Amino acid sequence: MHQPTISNESLTFSILLVLVAIFISHKEKLSLEKDIIWSTCRAIIQLLIAGYILKYIFNVDHELLTIALVMFICVNAAWNAKKRSKYIDKIYVTALIAITSGTFLTLLILILTNAIAFTPMQVIPITGMIAGNAMIAVGLCFNNLGQRFSSQQQQIQEMLSLGATPKVASAAIIRDSIRASLIPTVDSAKTVGIVSLPGMMSGLIFAGVDPLQAVKYQIMVTFMLLGTASLSTILAGYMTYTKFYNQRHQLLVTTLNKQ
């Protein structure tokens, strides 16, 4: 079967699609031209660096290098998830623990069940998918928690004044925040194969793999995304709600009013 390739010339011509986006932004006065150019240049540089690093790691095929890159992905995912926390300071460690725990548990299950082999060629791409999805879910969880604690201050204060503990007073907020943060992952699972043909499945088919075999891999990916996102957001939610209270179990109103 013909091996799909893309020439440098074809890649250069594909930049016309970016120019279309810039033209639309300029015509509609969206003021996104600089952001589009910056994000495009950054994506090119990051992907080229990642390509050379992955090529080296795949050739070396060393366990420690593989684990180091997995941790590197988790560290960066946590850093980006932290940026969504507008209401809480010093949340990076929480994001790192939540994302790393979910990612490593999922990888452990996949490796022990022989769904994937412990090789950089399989572990690293899978890590990128599950850590990236966990990053979005945890970031949404932080944002949802902040918004709900801010908008429901009165109800929480009333529950605390009646003798409720912070955990009891926060239970509904934690539950709703976790549910809301999982909606994108759940909706993606609902529409996979009907609306979208995800990257892994499309890539395998593009590379000449039998479509049914590609479907099996995509089903596995769907399962692991749901599992990782659920575990990571639960950890993030229950580790974060305490930061909205002081040591005397009083609600930190000044933190919630911060924009």
The end-to-end distance, rounded to whole angstroms, is: 57 Å
Strand proportion: under 5%
Number of helices: 11
**What does the overall shape look like?**
globular
Unreliable stretches? none
Structural class: mainly alpha
How many structural units, i.e. domains?
2
Summarize model confidence as the mean pLDDT. Answer: 86
Radius of gyration over C-alpha positions, nearest whole angstrom = 22 Å
**Main beta sheet: strand number and arrangement?**
none
Tally of strands: 0
Helix fraction, binned, reads over 70%
Q: H/E order of the elements? A: HHHHHHHHHHH
What does it look like?
The protein has 259 residues and is an all-alpha fold. The protein has 2 domains: 1-60; 62-255, no CATH class. The protein is 76% helix and 0% strand. The protein is built from 11 helices and no strands. The longest helix is centred in the middle third of the chain and has 32 residues, at 120-151. The chain is globular, with a radius of gyration of 22 Å. The model has no long low-confidence stretch (mean pLDDT 86).
Topology:
Blueprint: H1 8-13, H2 16-27, H3 33-60, H4 63-82, H5 92-112, H6 120-151, H7 153-161, H8 166-191, H9 199-206, H10 211-240, H11 253-256
Transmembrane segments: 6-24, 36-58, 64-81, 93-117, 123-145, 189-207, 219-241
InterPro entries: FetB, UPF0014_fam
Main location: membrane
